[in-house]
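re: ur question from yesterday

yeah so i grabbed the chain u mentioned. its 290 aa long if i counted rite. heres the sequnce exactly as i have it in my notes:
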Amino acid sequence: MVATGEGRLDAAVGRGAPLGRAAAWSHRCGWDDLAVSCGGLDEVRGALGLGPDWTRCWTATWRYAGNEVNCPVRDLGSVPAAGCEPVRRFSWRRDQRHRSGLQFLVSTGRHHGFESLEEARLLLALDFAADLVNVLAQPLRLRYSTRSGPREHIPDFLAFSRTGRWLIDVRPAARVTQQDRVAFAASAEVALLLGWRYVVVTGWKPHVTSTLDTLSAQRRPLTDRLGMADALVAAVAAGPRPFGELAGSTVAPPVARAWLLHLLWQRRLGVELGSALSETSLVCAGKEYR
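ran it thru and got these structure tokens back, copy pasting raw so excuse formatting
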């Protein structure tokens, strides 16, 4: 059953909770806690063509094993996590203004395409804090109705996590137009119907991108010949300690620094995200090793 009434789109749209002192630890946050998202989609919902049969009249196209599959949006929940492909190709031109590329995710063990640096930052945040299983770029082409006629929209990503699915658009706040808001409202409508979460990422909270970029340098598996991992985790068992002090207390501080970054990425340790990562950043015990 689809929810109705005031605030119905906000029920589907991810809202990044403020990173206050009590919630600023990296091992406790979700990726959407780190993002700044676009609100106010209920304000443009009236522009959508939401007749009695909209769930049948609105359609989606996605690609599976090289073939296009079309279905009403009400049946879109059957999209599998594996075997899907982007519905359109990435553009690669020498004179293009945006930067496309491939981002390796340790969560999936594969490279995933992005079309801008903003999208690359999103993929890094998903890899760090989304409990990610898979992610698909340009996952579907949504054909929807508005009061002024039919339109199409291709969301940027569909993320499959262990806690559900996220339909995601990425657009810097300064570039969000009124037409974009209508497309985002249509995507949020579909996400709500399917029980997915939807978010438009317009930016990131302070220090998030620089901290994740630093941690990602040591996100791949490391060989622990000196027993650093257990020693560092044990060193914060009694309470948080500064990053530099932790590294300096070991037999090999340079190696310990690499391991601290690795353990922070794994979320076996946590760090405060309210300020830039530095020698004085407090490091605490995080999640149990998985």
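noticed a couple things. Residues 178-194 form the longest helix (17 residues). also Confidence is low (pLDDT under 50) at residues 1-23.
anyway ttyl
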